[in-house]
């Protein structure tokens, strides 16, 4: 059990458990760095206020990050095909916005303003701006967008501040892995060289590894659960500090252990003594480091605070070294240094011994020599730092390449523009008065030399909208004022004309004219009553005439049908009678010839045969005539039936004669109607003229009323005139409306046309006269007797047949034949005479029947036309009769209005002189106004040319228009309490010039708002430049503050360790000198070999922390040895020289190991880590050289000013 305790086996078991727990509960360090490791600026900083406003912006932009997609064709213009491919890619991203967590996007396709901002002037590059949700990690988002944005034919990059920061973090993580491997190998090699044993390096690396693993787990759990400060540098510096310092402490411990073993002590005793002596030094030295890094917890800046994790690591390291090392030392003993056989005491440093001895001998010279060497570097030191994150990254990274492409083809600030926010929680800024202020601020910023473009709500495209400025609007106003002046001249001319017209007018004659109008209207009323009576009679007569014409048409048609039949029969009868007469004449001639022949030659019997034949033919013709006479008897019957129709024709003839008399009276009626229409037109014309005169009087009176220069009396008189004229106009308008209605009714009245009247007259002319109708009736009465005579004649002629039969007997008795022939000749003569008479009568009958048929046909057609015309006449007369009461009523209204007008005009006449005077005053006033307008226009023209006219003004209609709405949405928050301006600088966003410009802009904007309606509004600038500027201010301020705290803490620790006030001053002075000198040299080396002439903004702080915290170790090592020798007596100068010689070897070894450990940061490729490593290495070299000079010299000057003697040198060499 005793061996168990002496060999510290319990410590081994405990640390094994701790390591297992550390591994088991180790969080995901990369995720924690991503989540908590970003630079945190206090919420009161302007950039953070801006970020807060951005996160409350609305419009889908809350909690988003900005990403820029770059499409480039190098130095050649984008082709049409490439543009189509780019548009296709943009459309794909737009269609899958949710998949890629894109809240909003702005492309060159959106509008003209976006096109101007997102397409380079050389047409080689196009940008796509994305607002992406922060719900997903930036690394995963960037990878997804990179894949989706790949476009055939063009180079595509995805960049942005968050992506670049993530690349920096990844570069740091990758650099850390390299550093761990390189540091382990380097430490192993150095320890092998120092102790000439492979076991010591393994033990040292093992113990430091345990401390590193345990402390890292503690720090990461503190970050995860307690919000412990963290940055990308925390783990890196924990590695280099723990491995560097831990190895240094192990060297100190192992060197002391080796020394004790060389004195013959057992492993356990040597372990106990070595831990007591070296452990004392380690504890004091570690405490100073712990105090230095712990002091960083008081820093305000998150990056500085994150280094406090090193303090946790140092605390764990001290515990591991002082508890776990004893286990290996006590257990392994001398085997720990295998295969070394030499266990002589610790080695001495000849360099430190030489430097310290000469410093004590010539202290002033030593101090001056150090100062002389350091001064050039101190004087060339400057604090111009590089805040550009891009400098930290490799040029091969696509995001960095894309950023440079944007800077090359756009303004340098395009990729990371700044955003100025103006907010006032009590005011909505989308109002004209606030927009005017916003525009003034916009132009103020645009006027600054370092500003490339400024886009705002009033200038969404980054340039003025000329239509929204007073200068442009005054152009319209001055043009309008000229037109107004011209119009005033026209009005003035009108007033003068009205004045002259009133002066020239005879108002009394106007009243007389109104009296005449009243008298004329009364006559029209009387005429209207007469017209009503006449139209009533006309309507009644037209109705009767229409009925008669219809009956006449019907009867005429019946007569026409009968007469046509009669004419046909009479024609047949006439034809038969003519044939009969012809036959009778032929027979008579034949008989005469027979008689002649019989007388001449009785022997000519052949002629008898011929006569017999002719008699037979005559008999046949007589039979035909008899048949026709039988038909004629039926015609006589039909002719008798026509007698009533002929009597009706006689009646119709009488009616037509009466109708003709009515038509003759229509002329008078038409004249009356025409006279009434003419009167109505005259009355309407007079009313219209009166109404126009009243309108002129109203206009003139209104001009007087509107004239500010007119007297009150003139305005009162004008009011009365205007009221009277308005009342008169109202009555006249009503009367005119009534007259128009009556006139329209008269216009619809239709009288019989001339064609209708001519048709009636034609019918009357074609009607058979009374004499013709009487003659026709007489002839028709003789038809029966004529037919009777014709039948008797036929009966007489029938004996010819019998006579013909007896001709044969004539041969026997010529005498009898001759006698019979005489009788026959006498009968045929009578027959021929009767047939001729019959034929003539039938012919007359045919002619009369045809004439009657034609007349009755025309009569029937005319009667039908007459019936239609009289019906129309009756309807028109009825309509006219019905319209007359309205006419009479309208005329009464007109008469009433005229009387009212007469009364009104009587009042107007008395006021016209006052109106005339008022018109003159109005004319003078207009002249004055015209002059004033001309002067105003001249002033406005001058104002338009002045700077005062260059002022923003937006009409309300334009403000709420669809054209202006996109600008409001883009540059106003959803609640309209905040507006923003996008500012593109002409400088690198992370440059000192850009930071200075941003600060100046914020200050100028705040001053610009003073005394305006936005006085007191919050102004904040966001974006990479603003964040960098705030980082610069906070880092610079907190650096000084933190450095003071750290120096005070370490100074107090040194006072406790050295038990002196001056010695801590010497030590800290030496460290500060080494720090500034190393920074100046590092700057030169960086510029000469790395191409970076400036140090990154983190380098001075971390170099200071490392050099002060770690460099103080070497001073403590020296002072602890100095105290150890001082406890044994002797002169201070001798003790410090002896201590320097002894501890110098340890310090140089420790410096080599620590410097080598920091050198392992260089392959990381991260500029800050490289420069910090350079500064620490150079600082360690400087400390190794100046500590043995300055501190011994200071000790000698302070405590022992006497020179060293030979005995002192012997004492020194002996030890």
TrEMBL record:
Subcellular compartments: Cell membrane
InterPro entries per record: MMPL_dom, Mycobact_MmpL, Serralysin-like_metalloprot_C, xxxLxxG_rpt
Bilayer disposition of the protein: Multi-pass membrane protein
Keyword Hydrolase: no
Keyword terms, alphabetized: Cell membrane, Membrane, Transmembrane, Transmembrane helix
Family the entry assigns: Belongs to the resistance-nodulation-cell division (RND) (TC 2.A.6) family. MmpL subfamily.
NCBIfam families found in the cross-reference section: xxxLxxG_by_4
Classification via PANTHER family: MEMBRANE PROTEIN MJ1562-RELATED, MEMBRANE PROTEIN YDGH-RELATED
Designated name of the protein: Transport protein
Source species: Lacticaseibacillus pantheris DSM 15945 = JCM 12539 = NBRC 106106
Taxonomic placement: Bacteria, Bacillati, Bacillota, Bacilli, Lactobacillales
């Amino acid at each position: 059990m005793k061996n168990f305790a002496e060999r510290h086996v319990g410590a081994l078991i405990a640390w094994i458990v701790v390591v297992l727990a550390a591994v088991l509960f180790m969080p995901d360090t990369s995720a924690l760095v991503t989540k908590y490791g970003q630079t945190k600026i206090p919420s009161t900083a302007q950039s953070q206020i801006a970020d807060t406003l951005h996160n409350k912006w609305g419009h889908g932009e809350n909690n988003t990050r900005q990403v820029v997609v770059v499409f480039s064709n190098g130095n050649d213009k984008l082709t049409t095909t490439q543009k189509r491919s780019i548009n296709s890619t943009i459309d794909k991203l737009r269609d899958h916005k949710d998949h890629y967590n894109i809240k909003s996007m702005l492309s060159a396709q959106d509008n003209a303003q976006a096109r101007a901002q997102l397409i380079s002037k050389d047409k080689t590059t196009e940008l796509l701006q994305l607002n992406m949700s922060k719900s997903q990690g930036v690394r995963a988002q960037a990878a997804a967008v990179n894949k989706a944005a790949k476009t055939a034919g063009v180079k595509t990059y995805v960049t942005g501040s968050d992506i670049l920061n993530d690349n920096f973090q990844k570069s740091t993580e990758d650099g850390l892995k390299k550093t761990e491997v390189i540091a382990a190998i380097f430490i192993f090699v150095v320890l092998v060289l120092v102790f000439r044993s492979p076991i010591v390096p393994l033990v040292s690396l093992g113990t430091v590894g345990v401390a590193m693993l345990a402390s890292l787990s503690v720090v990461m759990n503190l970050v995860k659960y307690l919000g412990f400060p963290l940055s990308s540098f925390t783990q890196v510096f924990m590695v280099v500090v723990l491995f560097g310092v831990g190895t240094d402490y192990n060297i100190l411990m192992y060197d002391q252990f080796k020394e004790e073993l060389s004195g013959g002590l057992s492993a356990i005793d040597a372990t106990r003594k070595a831990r007591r002596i070296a452990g004392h030094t380690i504890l004091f030295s570690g405490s100073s480091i712990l105090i230095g890094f712990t002091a960083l917890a008081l820093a305000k800046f998150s990056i500085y605070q994150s280094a406090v994790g090193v303090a946790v690591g140092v605390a764990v390291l001290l515990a591991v070294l002082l508890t776990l090392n004893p286990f290996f030392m006590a257990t392994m003993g001398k085997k720990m240094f295998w295969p070394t056989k030499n266990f002589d005491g610790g080695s001495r440093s000849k360099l430190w011994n030489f430097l310290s001895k000469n410093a004590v001998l010539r202290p002033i010279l030593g101090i001056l020599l150090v100062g002389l060497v350091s001064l050039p570097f101190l004087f060339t030191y400057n604090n111009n730092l590089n805040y550009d994150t891009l400098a930290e990254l490799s040029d091969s990274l696509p995001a960095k390449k894309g950023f440079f492409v944007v800077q090359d083809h756009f303004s340098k600030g395009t990729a990371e523009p700044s955003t100025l926010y103006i907010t006032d929680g009590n005011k909505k800024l989308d109002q004209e008065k606030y927009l005017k202020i916003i525009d003034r601020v916009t132009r103020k910023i645009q006027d600054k030399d370092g500003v490339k473009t400024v886009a705002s709500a009033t200038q969404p495209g980054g340039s003025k909208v000329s239509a929204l400025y007073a200068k442009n609007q005054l152009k319209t106003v001055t043009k309008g004022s000229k037109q107004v002046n011209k119009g005033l001249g026209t009005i003035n001319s009108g007033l003068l004309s009205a004045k002259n017209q009133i002066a020239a007018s005879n108002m009394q004659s106007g009243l007389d004219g109104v009296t005449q109008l009243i008298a004329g209207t009364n006559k029209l009323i009387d005429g209207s009553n007469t017209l009503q009576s006449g139209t009533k009679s006309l309507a009644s007569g037209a109705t009767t005439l229409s009925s008669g014409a219809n009956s006449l048409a019907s009867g005429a048609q019946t007569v026409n049908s009968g007469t046509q039949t009669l004419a046909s029969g009479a024609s047949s009868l006439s034809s038969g009678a003519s044939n009969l007469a012809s036959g009778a004449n032929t027979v008579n001639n034949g008989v005469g010839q027979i008689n002649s022949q019989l007388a001449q030659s009785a022997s000519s019997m052949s002629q008898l045969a011929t006569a017999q034949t002719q008699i037979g033919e005559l008999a046949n013709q007589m039979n035909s005539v008899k048949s026709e006479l039988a038909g004629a008897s039926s015609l006589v019957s039909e002719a008798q039936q026509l007698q009533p129709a002929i009597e009706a024709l006689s009646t119709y003839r009488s009616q037509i004669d009466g109708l003709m008399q009515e038509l003759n009276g229509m002329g008078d009626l038409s004249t009356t109607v025409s006279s009434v229409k003419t009167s109505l037109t005259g009355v309407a014309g007079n009313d219209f003229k009166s109404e126009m005169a009243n309108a002129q009087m109203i206009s003139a009176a209104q001009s007087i009323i509107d004239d500010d220069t007119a007297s009150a009396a003139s305005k009162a008189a004008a009011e009365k005139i205007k009221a009277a004229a308005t009342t008169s106009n109202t009555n006249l308008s009503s009367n005119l409306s009534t007259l128009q209605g009556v006139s329209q009714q008269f216009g619809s009245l239709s009288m019989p046309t001339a064609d209708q009247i001519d048709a009636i007259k034609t019918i009357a002319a074609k009607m058979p006269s009374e004499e013709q109708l009487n003659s026709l009736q007489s002839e028709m009465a003789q038809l029966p007797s004529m037919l009777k005579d014709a039948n008797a004649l036929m009966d007489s002629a029938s004996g010819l047949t019998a006579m013909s039969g007896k001709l044969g007997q004539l041969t026997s008795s010529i005498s009898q034949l001759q006698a019979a022939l005489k009788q026959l000749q006498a009968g045929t003569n009578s027959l021929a005479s009767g047939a001729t008479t019959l034929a003539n009568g039938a012919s007359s009958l045919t002619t009369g029947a045809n004439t009657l048929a034609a007349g009755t046909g025309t009569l029937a057609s005319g009667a039908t036309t007459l019936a239609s015309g009289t019906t129309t006449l009756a309807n028109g007369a009825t309509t006219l009769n019905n319209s007359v009461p309205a006419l009479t009523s309208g005329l009464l209204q007109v008469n009433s209005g005229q009387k009212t007008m007469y009364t009104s005009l009587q009042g107007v006449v008395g006021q016209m002189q006052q109106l005339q005077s008022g018109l003159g005053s109005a004319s003078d006033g207009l002249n004055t106004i015209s002059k004033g307008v001309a002067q105003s226009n001249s002033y406005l023209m001058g104002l338009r040319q002045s700077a005062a006219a260059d002022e923003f003004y937006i009409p309300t209609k334009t403000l709420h228009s669809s054209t202006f709405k996109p600008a409001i949405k883009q540059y106003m928050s959803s609640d309209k309490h905040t507006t923003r301006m996008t500012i593109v600088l002409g400088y690198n966003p992370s440059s000192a010039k850009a930071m200075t410009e941003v600060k100046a802009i914020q200050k100028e904007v705040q001053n610009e708002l003073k005394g305006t309606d936005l006085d007191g509004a919050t102004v904040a600038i966001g974006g990479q430049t603003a964040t960098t500027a705030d980082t610069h201010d906070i880092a610079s301020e907190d650096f000084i503050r933190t450095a003071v705290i750290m120096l005070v803490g370490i100074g107090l620790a040194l006072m406790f360790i050295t038990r002196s006030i001056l010695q801590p001053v010497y030590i800290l002075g030496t460290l500060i000198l080494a720090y500034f000198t190393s920074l100046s040299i590092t700057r030169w080396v960086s510029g000469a070999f790395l191409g970076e002439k400036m140090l990154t903004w983190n380098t001075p702080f971390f170099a200071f922390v490392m050099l002060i915290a770690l460099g103080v170790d070497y001073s403590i090592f020296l002072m602890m040895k100095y105290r150890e020798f001082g406890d044994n007596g002797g002169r201070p100068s001798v003790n410090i020289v002896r201590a320097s010689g002894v501890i110098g070897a340890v310090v140089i070894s420790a410096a080599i190991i620590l410097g080598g450990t920091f050198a392992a940061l260089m392959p990381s490729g991260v500029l800050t880590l490289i420069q910090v490593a350079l500064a620490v290495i150079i600082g360690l070299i400087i400390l190794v050289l100046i500590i043995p000079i300055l501190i011994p010299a200071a000790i000698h000057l302070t405590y022992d000013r006497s020179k060293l003697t030979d005995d002192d040198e012997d004492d020194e060499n002996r030890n």
